[in-house]
Amino acid sequence: MLQKRKNYLIAYMFLLPWFIGFFGLVVGPMISSLYLSFTQYDLLTAPQWVGAQNYVEMFNDRKFIASVKVTTTFVVIGVPLQLIAALFIAMLLNKGLSGIGFYRTVYYIPSLLGGSVAIALLWKNIFGMNGIFNDFLGIFGIAGRGWVSHPDYAIYTLIALATWQFGSSMVIFLAGLKQIPGELYEAASVDGANPFMKFKAITLPLLSPVILFNLVMVSISSLQVFTSAYIVSEGSGGPANSTLFYTLYLYQKGFSFFEMGYASAMAWLLLIVIALLTAIIFFSSKYWVHYEYGGKS
Amino acid sequence: MKKTPILLFVLLHLILLMACENIFSRNDKTVDSPSDILNGPSKQKVELRFTWWGGEERHNRTLRAIELFEERHPHIKIDPSYGNFEGYFENLTTQFNAGNTPDIIQFGGNLNDYVYRGVVLPLDTFIGNELDITLHDQSMIDAATFDGQFYGVSLGINTWGLLLNKSMFEEAGIPLPHITWTWEDFIEISIQLSDSLEGVYGTEYFDHNGFGIFIDQRGKTLHENGILGITYDDVVDWFQLWSDLREKGGALPADLQVTSTLTPEQSLFVRGKVAMTLIPSNLVEAYSNYSEDEVIFHPHPNNEIGRSGVSLRPSQFLAGNKYTRYPNEVALFLDFIVNDKEAATILGNERGTPVNSEIREFLLTNSSEMEREIFKFIDWVSITSDAPYVPNLPGYNETSALFLRISEEIAFGKKTVEDGAREYWNELEKVLTQYNK
């Protein structure tokens, strides 16, 4: 018994650096941001307690409501697109083509680069007024426009950028596809099933746990999207608030407008929304996620 | 056997500690070098961090001035950090909060926002010692004085005017406007330029800086003692003017306008998209250097009754961080930047015309033709100006972003002129109330 406890002690000592990081860099800041969300705090002078005022103010703040709309649009359109693109590419790459390793790498690259500033800048130029996207449209005689600089289209270029970064969900899908026993497809073929029926009756149900995982991960990261919008609009959320993502507005409030208390309140609200959304997805999974071997896999 | 984990543990932490040591040992370089000992009682080595925003031109000039300062004061090292305007103040505010703020900071018209929050170094105790402001224009000293305390040297006197692309005017066969032209002339010329030049628009949108002039022309002030001096109608008129001009093709369409930037080398004017733009006088040289065409700096159009509304303004301020360890050296550096002849020769007019009258005269005899043109322009404004200097609204970052956003929403037809104007006016009231508390 004593021996066992001693071993635990050693284990905890090894974990100590991680604990220091966890408490110092995650738990500590979270608690202080919770406190700050109940204060008026301009970052330069001491915070003043204002109770729930920040939380109340949000619902009368037009920009806040605009930012919620932008982020909701992004999640509702972007998440399914990202998942479909990732699954589609994963299925292509699951075929036994020659040089498949090379393609897998190539298709994964965008998600390694995707979150970077350089890619957002590149994207901004591709879809700018004189960008190559418009040159491409020009070949077909279509007059392009400033895709990132028009409020009706700017968000869709950002959705396209996010969709293009399907790599990490794709890899997970690919692993999931590999797990599906080939015999099932063979048996289905013998019974005369066409590819679509095989996809519907075998691939989707057996892949559903992986879809659940990807859905949760992509939803969370979509709610938190920041870099691309910040770069494309140079931090303004423009044109005309069309790319004012929730996190971008949070950043503006905290760092440009001297309202860190309000920004903290926004951050906590986002945390609650993410938790709720995840809970809803998990709850709904009872009805559509299929676990082979009675849910033990 | 059992000892191995403990050994590993100790080893791991030792490595971590070694990594940390670098952080701990970085400070306190007070050990005298041999040369200091030879030179008798030595001054302590001082390192000051200096941050500013700007374009390429400003960076090059400032870095050269820093070199000169370090030659003059070998015991002081200036550690520069510089970049674009975008993100500059967000970064600065974060640094203040984290306690690693640079010692010397370039502020813009939002100096008041930081003074108000008590993080700017008051300079009164250094005046007459490290810092000399006896030859500075009183109005520029006043602009950096809040509640009787002086907080920053003005880096230059500025005035707004229109930059015209002379080559484009010639190509279009349109004569340059008279120096006392009106908005009506401006509108007409913009449309003519757009019509006669392929892929070029007459003018870009003037944004909140232009709005300020527009208000001054009506003999009003944007705000005074926390009270708005404008009416809803003033805002409507401004947005309507631009909305009409955009419709008639004289002004840049909305989706091009939003790509506008404050950095000269990337501006729409330099890229040849527009023939006219509103800029502060200190940037004329940078714009003209980067533009392939011949450009000319021209007075802003007047209103119907001939008021110009343009005043002399401080361009930027150089100020100290209140928590700096070396306030005296900070003051010394500020003094060097605004009062040293050689520094002035290097920095030129890039941050505005020097506020020190002696330096100004000195530069006048030692400057390029372009610079002399600007000096003359500034002189002309100082004689003809009919508008007082009005400091920026409090909450500058927020109110300027608000104005831009509403301008964009109107330009894209997302809001009517009336709705946009109403929203701006209401929001502005809210901000002012917040700061009056």
Automatic annotation (TrEMBL), chain A:
Topological category with respect to the lipid bilayer: Multi-pass membrane protein
Family matches, as InterPro entries: ABC_transporter_permease (IPR051393), MetI-like (IPR000515), MetI-like_sf (IPR035906)
Keyword Transmembrane helix carried by entry: yes
Coiled-coil residue windows: none
Spans traversing the lipid bilayer: 12-36, 70-93, 105-123, 153-177, 206-232, 265-289
CDD domains in the cross-refs: TM_PBP2 (cd06261)
Superkingdom: Bacteria
Domain ABC transmembrane type-1: residue ranges: 68-281
Pfam families per UniProt: BPD_transp_1
Location(s), subcellular: Cell membrane
Record bears the keyword Transport: yes
Keywords: Cell membrane, Membrane, Sugar transport, Transmembrane, Transmembrane helix, Transport
PROSITE patterns, A to Z: ABC_TM1
Family: Belongs to the binding-protein-dependent transport system permease family.
Protein name: Multiple sugar transport system permease protein
UniProtKB/TrEMBL annotation, chain B:
Source domain of life: Bacteria
Transport listed as a keyword: yes
Keywords for the protein's UniProt record, in alphabetical order: Sugar transport, Transport
InterPro entries: Bact_solute-bd_prot1, SBP
NAD found in the keyword field: no
PROSITE patterns documented for this protein: PROKAR_LIPOPROTEIN (PS51257)
SUPFAM superfamilies linked: Periplasmic binding protein-like II
Record's protein name: Multiple sugar transport system substrate-binding protein
Species: Evansella vedderi
